[in-house]
Amino acid sequence: MKYKIEKNTVQETLVIPLYARKMCSELFPNLYYDETAVRLIDKIDYDFSVASKKSDSFMQKFGFLEVATRQNDIAWEIRDYLKTHPNAAVVNLGCGLDDTGRYCDNGRCKIYNLDFPDVITIRNELLPVREREKNVPCNLNDTKWFKKIDASGGAVFFASGVFYYFFAEQVKSLVCAMAKTFPGGRLVFDAAGKTAVKLIAKTWIKTAKIKDVNAYFSVSDAKKELSLWSDNISVSSRGYMLGYNDLKNPSVNGFFRLLAKFGDNVMKMQIVRLDFGGTL
């Protein structure tokens, strides 16, 4: 029996990113493959006809490529942290139906998936937890969830496509609190400049009748801007599209690589890494 997802509901916001990861896997299999997304799409009762029609467009295919590179970049940073902290907590902030934690599982780490309670309810149905894994219902801006994380072996946190919809002050407050609570930890997330954030949130902003777009989180120069937040944070960043992979791949055409360069250099699309000072 398939899990029913209705149109114009919170659940729909989980299905669209899942569909994007499934399309990434079909269009760029040499670059990215998400077995969970491919499998879950067949378990969901939802009308994908509109999304399917749009998926044929050139720019939509580039959007799928963006998703693939983002997921690969973040996974690289998680695995890099686990090399020196094999028993760490791997914490997915705003997880939706994303399965990156399991994708990076080294057989020893602890995996935490955090999101709003109604999202976690759906996740529990479609992605029941495994050994060393917990689904935690919470509001990320309410730091009570800190107590749920066993960071005795270190902690690497990641947020994929999440912080664009936070106020800048919310991200700053959350990051500074995390730096104090999880010394020796790491936070990895995707970010972009103001112009890109406006494009990303265009439909959402219009629906929500939001006027002050500039209040939302954007980053142009991560090291310069975010280093001011705390003396306890080390900041670095790489290009979102080409910072980890040159995309010279049989499934990626040359024009996509030009667009990728534009995205990284002009739109300031980037993967930001924050390493928290201190020791466990």
Rg, Å, rounded: 18 Å
Q: With helices defined by DSSP (H or I, 4 residues minimum), what is the helix count?
A: 11
Shape: globular
Q: Could you say what the CATH topology is called?
A: Rossmann fold
Cross-sheet strand order for the largest sheet: 5-4-3-6-7-9-8
In short:
The protein has helices at residues 12-27, 35-41, 49-54, 58-84, 100-103, 117-126, 168-181, 194-200, 202-208, 222-226, 254-265, and strands spanning 3-4, 44-45, 89-93, 110-115, 133-137, 155-159, 186-191, 233-239, 270-276. The protein is an alpha/beta fold and 280 residues long. The relative contact order is 0.13.
Helix/strand layout:
Layout: E1 3-4, H1 12-27, H2 35-41, E2 44-45, H3 49-54, H4 58-84, E3 89-93, H5 100-103, E4 110-115, H6 117-126, E5 133-137, E6 155-159, H7 168-181, E7 186-191, H8 194-200, H9 202-208, H10 222-226, E8 233-239, H11 254-265, E9 270-276
